[in-house]
């Protein structure tokens, strides 16, 4: 029996979610590693701590907006892709606690993961509500009467 077109579309979307999540997770991990190394291994740049933190935070936010822009019509796909990305960053965060043990004192791995998952859940819910509101604005509230 040949696969149904809807099933093939679902597999393609799932694959897209996975790959986008992996790519965004790798990008976020790179930002986190660079941020941590610059902050801890280059004391000559301490006077630029605020611009460094703003730049790294902005880059992380831009990377997390990639799934939002790609799957803007499907909030569940935004959540799935973002959660894959955040899981990769959480794994890197856990590994980075080995050479930087004070990271654990700042925020534990579980709390780090839950913070990202909560933000992703809120973003997905807001995207869903925005879709509902826009859908209501573009459709008539009362169906038009048909003349008999």
Keywords:
mainly alpha
Radius of gyration: 21 Å
* Structure annotation, total helices: 5
Main sheet? none
Series of secondary-structure elements, N-terminal to C-terminal = HHHHH
Instruction: Label the structural class.
Output: mainly alpha
How would you name the oligomeric state of the polypeptide chains in this document?
Answer: single chain
Estimate the helix proportion, in percent. over 70%
Query: What fraction strand?
Result: under 5%
Terminal Cα separation, in Å? 47 Å
Number of strands: 0
Average predicted local confidence, pLDDT: 87
Shape: elongated
List unreliable stretches of 5+ residues. Answer: none
What's the topology here?
Blueprint: H1 5-41, H2 49-70, H3 75-96, H4 102-106, H5 109-138
Helix pairs in contact: 1-2, 1-3, 2-3, 3-5
Concise summary:
The protein has five helices and no strands.
Could you describe the 3D structure shown?
With 148 residues, the chain is mostly helical. It is 78% helix and 0% strand. It is built from five helices and no strands. The protein has helices at 5-41, 49-70, 75-96, 102-106, 109-138.
